[in-house]
């Protein structure tokens, strides 16, 4: 079984830092706590009419199933009814793991009969190092459409985490529609992005191609994905282990659609052993079969192996665990009751603490310095020298393959350099309007025009970009950590967010005034807990001016960046409707890097 990282990936933030509102004209410092508290973003309300379940997209050739739905049932964000007897004497407290009901396919009381025949309905409590963070509901049912039997499998995830002490709610859902013999015909992915904004993508299988389209905020987005035969959907996946008679060390493989990367990947599963395991408090150990699944690399990203424990007779999954530094350690999904899985999260891990990298010493005035040399050790990566970008501003030197360490030489950039060779001219993707960097709308155009209004008629690309950086810094409200990766048009309406929203809006505004742009993902120097310095994950933007790609940071508004910005990767976001451009950051997180300061230049 593949790792349930499809659920985890949606909560890893691209950026965590913001700038405090400046005092007068003084440049603001990088800080790790907003001046005001933002409100957790609720997922967008579904726009489907009552009485229908739409299997997206609603276009010719798609599947549309009619059903009657009970109010408040199965609606993301609606209160979940407590299981009968959940608070009775002797029963577990809400939030405590408890054995699931013996019959997993028994419909819940009050479930609409029009839901079709239930196949399974699993509730898993998700936890990091034993601390609950939310739940994963994995369900399947069989329905009939025009005399054709279809199966619908759905994974719905809701996590509550913290960022700098502020609670953040994240929602995601993936589903497939399959024929009775397991052939996938429709895919669907929904993911919370910004305030009241949802990314909704769906695909229709047409022979050997998955035709992916968007709806709502992603309307007009389309892409064709190669679709080999034998892809396993969410309704068939829980039954992969049923009837397997493997010896320890033997393997099997299967294909699955990984929606976060919009591609089909191969998963290799190894059977390890049968072992007794007590899953819930005050219950005896039971024999379970232990499998380890590894997904093929996605570019340079290797997701961690996931261990799944299943019932030897039925093959039903009961627990899965994997190491994930991005959330602070070992993540587990434990099968339990609905009441326990959906209980309120009381003490979520703080991503700002678990994702930051501590430095060995302070660098006073780092953003005004000329250069810094860092030593990076990344024992968790097979090719550490490629973790960070190599460009005109930073360079990897003195690689020690045995120690998996290297020096990263980083220089300041405060305008187009006249030294060295020019960068290649950017392609049209750095000026085009895309799903995330969507500048071709009234709100972004209005802000862009206001930003450059005071410039002379002959102002060049650099002058326009600096004006945009200054406008975004002065007009954004740096007090919103609940957004995952809002699109530029959404940010233009709210004018709030963290560094990722600053960067998206600034990049879009630059394109609106004819300046090629892209976003940069990396680390930035900042004060940490107790005043000790850290490198925190951050996003800024770059523009092509004077024959060079030059960085700017709208959370600072200083007309460039110093050597405290360490670039991991850049991206145009062209033709991109997923969060795959964030994968290089995920790779660095999983490498567990240690960073120290070698030298500081003026």
Notes on the protein architecture:
- The protein is built from eight helices and 28 strands.
- The N terminus is likely disordered.
- It starts with a helix and ends with a strand.
- A hairpin with a 5-residue loop joins strand 9 and strand 10.
- Helix 4 packs across helix 5, helix 4 packs across helix 7 and helix 5 runs antiparallel to helix 7.
- It has a domain of 244 residues.
- It is mostly beta strands and 602 residues long.
- The strands form five sheets. A 15-stranded mixed beta sheet has the order 12-11-10-9-8-7-6-5-19-18-17-16-15-14-13. Strands 20, 24, 25, 26 and 27 form a five-stranded antiparallel beta sheet that branches.
Structure characteristics:
single chain, 602 residues, 15-stranded mixed sheet, globular, disordered N terminus
Task: Furnish the topology, listing elements before pairings.
Blueprint: H1 5-8, E1 18-19, E2 30-31, E3 52-54, E4 64-66, E5 117-128, E6 131-145, E7 148-163, E8 166-179, E9 184-192, E10 198-206, E11 209-216, E12 222-226, E13 231-232, E14 251-258, E15 263-277, E16 286-295, E17 306-310, E18 317-324, E19 329-336, H2 338-341, H3 351-354, E20 357-358, E21 371-377, E22 394-400, E23 405-411, H4 442-451, H5 461-475, H6 488-494, H7 499-512, E24 517-527, E25 533-545, E26 548-552, E27 565-571, H8 583-591, E28 594-601
Parallel strand pairs: 13-14
Antiparallel strand pairs: 1-2, 3-4, 5-6, 5-19, 6-7, 7-8, 8-9, 9-10, 10-11, 11-12, 14-15, 15-16, 16-17, 17-18, 18-19, 20-25, 21-23, 21-28, 22-23, 24-25, 24-27, 25-26
Helix pairs in contact: 4-5, 4-7, 5-7, 6-7
């Amino acid at each position: 079984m593949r790792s349930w990282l499809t659920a985890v990936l949606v909560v890893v933030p691209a950026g965590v830092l913001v700038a405090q509102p400046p005092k007068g004209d003084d440049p603001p410092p990088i800080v790790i706590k907003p001046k005001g508290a933002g409100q957790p973003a609720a997922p967008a309300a579904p726009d489907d009419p009552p009485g229908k379940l739409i299997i997206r997209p609603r276009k010719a050739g798609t599947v549309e199933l009619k059903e009657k739905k009970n109010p408040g049932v199965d609606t993301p964000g609606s209160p979940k009814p407590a299981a009968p007897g959940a608070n009775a004497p002797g029963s577990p407290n809400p939030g405590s793991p408890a054995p699931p009901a013996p019959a997993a396919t028994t419909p819940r009381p009050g479930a609409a009969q029009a839901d079709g025949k239930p196949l399974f309905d699993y509730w898993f409590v998700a936890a990091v190092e034993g601390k609950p963070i939310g739940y994963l509901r994995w369900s399947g049912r069989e329905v009939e459409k025009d005399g054709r039997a279809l199966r619908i499998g759905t994974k719905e995830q809701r996590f509550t985490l913290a960022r700098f002490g502020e609670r953040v709610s994240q929602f995601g859902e993936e589903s497939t529609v399959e024929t009775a013999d397991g052939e996938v015909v429709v895919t669907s992915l929904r993911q919370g992005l910004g305030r009241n904004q949802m990314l909704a993508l769906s695909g229709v299988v047409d022979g050997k191609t998955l035709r992916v389209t968007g709806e709502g905020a992603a309307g007009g987005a389309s892409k064709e994905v190669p679709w080999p035969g034998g892809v396993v959907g969410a309704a068939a996946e829980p039954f992969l282990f049923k009837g397997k008679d493997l010896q320890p060390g033997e393997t099997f493989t299967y294909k699955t659609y990984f929606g976060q990367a919009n591609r089909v990947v191969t998963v290799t599963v190894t059977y390890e052993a049968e072992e007794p395991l007590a899953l819930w408090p005050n219950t005896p150990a039971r024999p379970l079969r232990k499998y380890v699944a590894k997904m093929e690399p996605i570019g340079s990203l290797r997701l961690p192996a996931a261990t799944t424990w299943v019932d030897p007779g039925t093959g039903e999954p009961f627990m899965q665990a994997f190491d994930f530094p991005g959330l602070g350690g070992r993540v587990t999904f434990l099968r339990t009751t609905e009441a326990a899985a959906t209980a309120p999260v009381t003490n979520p891990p703080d991503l700002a603490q678990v994702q930051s990298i501590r430095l060995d010493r302070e660098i006073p005035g780092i953003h005004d310095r000329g250069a810094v040399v860092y030593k990076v050790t990344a024992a968790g990566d097979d090719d550490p020298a490629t973790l960070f970008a190599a460009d005109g501003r930073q360079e990897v030197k003195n690689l020690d393959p045995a120690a998996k360490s290297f020096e990263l030489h980083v220089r300041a950039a405060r305008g187009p350099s006249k030294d060295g060779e020019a960068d290649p001219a950017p392609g049209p993707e750095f000026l085009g309007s895309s799903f995330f960097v969507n500048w071709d709308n009234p709100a972004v155009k209005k802000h862009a025009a206001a930003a450059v209004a005071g410039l002379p008629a002959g102002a060049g690309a650099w002058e326009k970009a600096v004006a945009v950086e200054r406008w975004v810094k002065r007009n954004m409200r740096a007090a919103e950590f609940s957004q995952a990766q809002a699109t530029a048009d959404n940010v233009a309406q709210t004018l709030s967010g963290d560094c990722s929203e600053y960067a998206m809006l600034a990049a879009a505004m630059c394109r609106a005034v004819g300046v090629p742009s892209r976003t940069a993902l990396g680390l930035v120097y900042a004060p940490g807990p107790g005043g000790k310095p850290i490198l925190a994950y951050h996003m800024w933007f770059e523009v092509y001016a004077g024959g060079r790609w030059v960085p700017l940071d709208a959370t600072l508004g200083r007309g460039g960046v110093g050597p405290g910005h360490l670039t991991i990767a850049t991206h145009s976001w062209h033709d991109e409707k997923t969060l795959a451009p964030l994968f290089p950051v995920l790779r660095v997180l999983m490498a567990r890097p240690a960073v120290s300061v070698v030298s500081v230049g003026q």
